[in-house]
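Propose amino acids for all 129 sites.
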């Protein structure tokens, strides 16, 4: 399936990508003095391997990745930061995923802002604040 939304942006406001949405092989998200929330738990994917480029300039980007996806995070922080964490409710460790598990690579750039990636259960009450 093709035609996913390849770009999300927030300039001095907020933007959300959540629920049942189509995520393309590459998605670029930019937050400039605003916030973007990306929830991949119910997303459909064009590819088994997805790349998200997250750029936060005096803003923030929060990304929820379901625990059954392999995730890698890399990036640069300039007077800002990026990081990844996992929910206490995770039951699948990253090293226990099958070799053919879908994957997402997140490349973060944070300039006086932040990018936060969290592994969370696919179902559950945890929502982005």
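Proposal:
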């Amino acid at each position: 399936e093709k035609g996913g939304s390849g770009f999300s942006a927030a300039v001095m406001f907020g933007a959300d990508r959540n629920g049942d949405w189509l995520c393309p092989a590459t998605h670029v998200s930019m937050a400039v003095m605003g916030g973007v929330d990306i929830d991949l738990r119910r997303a459909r994917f064009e590819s088994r391997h997805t790349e998200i480029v997250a750029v936060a300039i005096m803003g923030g980007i929060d990304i929820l990745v379901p625990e059954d996806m392999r995730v890698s995070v890399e990036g640069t922080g300039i007077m800002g930061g990026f990081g990844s964490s996992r929910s206490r409710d995770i039951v699948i460790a990253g090293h226990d995923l099958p070799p053919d598990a879908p994957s997402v690579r997140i490349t973060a750039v944070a300039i006086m802002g932040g990018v936060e990636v969290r592994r969370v259960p696919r179902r559950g009450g945890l929502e982005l604040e």
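The mean pLDDT is 87. The chain has no helices and twelve strands.
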